[in-house]
Amino acid sequence: MFTFWFATIVFIGTYIVIASEKVHKTVAALIGASLMFLVVLHGPTHGEKETPGQVLEQGIEQSQVQPSPQIGAELLHRAEKYGELDVFARYVNFDVIFTLAGMMLLVNVLSGTGIFQYIAIKSAKIARGSPVRTMILLVLSTAFLSAFLDNVTTVLLIAPVTLLVATELGVSAMPFLMAETMASNIGGTATLIGDPPNLIIGSVARLDFAAFMINLAPFILGILIVYCICLRLYYSKRMQVTVEKRARIMELNESAAVTDPVNMKRGGLVMIITIAGFLVHGVLGLQPCVIAIAGAALCLAICKVDVDHCLEKIEWSTLFFFLGLFALVSGAAEGGLMGEFGSLLASAKDWNVLVTVLVVMWISGICAAIMNNVSYTAAVVSVVAAFLATTPAFAAPAARELMWWGLALSVCLGGNGTLVGAAANLVTVGIAEKSGHQVTFKDFLHYGLPVTVLSMIAASIYIIIRYYVCCI
Hints:
The chain has about 475 residues and is mostly helical. Among the domains are: about 45-85, no CATH class; about 95-310, no CATH class. The protein has helices at about 1-20, 25-40, 50-65, 75-85, 85-90, 95-110, 115-125, 130-150, 150-170, 175-190, 195-205, 210-215, 215-235, 245-250, 260-285, 290-300, 305-310, 315-335, 335-345, 355-370, 375-390, 395-415, 425-435, 440-470. The longest helix is centred in the last third of the chain and has 30 residues, at about 440-470.
């Protein structure tokens, strides 16, 4: 009982501290993780070494899955290896950590070439200095980049140029920045690596890059088209500029933004190879982290860059935040808190598959907006996995996948709901404040809430259509 309440207090308390922003989220997550390691989570150094059978029994008990003849030599072998792991390796999903780290390294090399600034300036010139057309092109560029890069990194690269373009046009930068933030979270939903929640879901559900592209990318493309139409209708008469200001944009030299064309070509080639690797990693039997790290290593090897500088620019704060978050959630699961959540979900065992998925979607979308979508996904994904494994209605693979796609859509799109819903939101607000634009929680809600509600409605319609096409 002590372990349960201790884990519950640490888990909820850490989330409250993260949401309050009184303490840096990484510090809060690491403190919470440390408390879990000290009191709740156990490794091979705590008492006698566990046998494979003991580890296997614990895993079955925690996941609420009954033993079956399917549990064979492979699972026992994994249990044996698990018993030998240190405490961090047991409870942290390093597939997600190293996938993010590898993509950050790749982006760091490419960002030094000026390619992303080139894309932003070129978009403005293609739009011929029209604020609305420029916004739409920047939104599409942001969404496309976010599908293949971390959306936080995309915002960091696009936002400074957006401020430059808005200044030259003489219009407020806030509509541009907010639209790009929404686009980064929408575009990141399309692929396995576009948004961290997808990495977590893909790792647990064993869904590869190609599966995300096939099942989510076409829908997300449709959402983006509708979003751009809405932006045009809303801002077409609200943002007008003079001919002289349009001429300033046309005078910007996008080619001057490219500072290292040699490394741009080499790094771009490696990025294409890496993305191709993500497309086929499931067929090759490779984890996403292997593809990402291999791509980063190849890029560092063939591009003439300062390796130490590239490593320094990795967003270590983000990576350590995830390290702490995974341990925090594992502690809550070990203490029994996730089991309590699972019992609430278990009450839906007799519900219709479609109703269950839609309820989980909307609850998840709301919680993701309030708690931060990464934090919520890390907490709920194991509960959903256990529910699917023990619910006869979800015995069919199509029904299980319907739940995973619904969860992925809800947590990623729900991240647009509030200022703390996604990491990209906080980054955008930070950039805006440094440039003199103050953004309150209410201000962000004005932009994000309508986008979230409408995109969630569209996602629900998509899931309903999939259910009648694939699950009946």
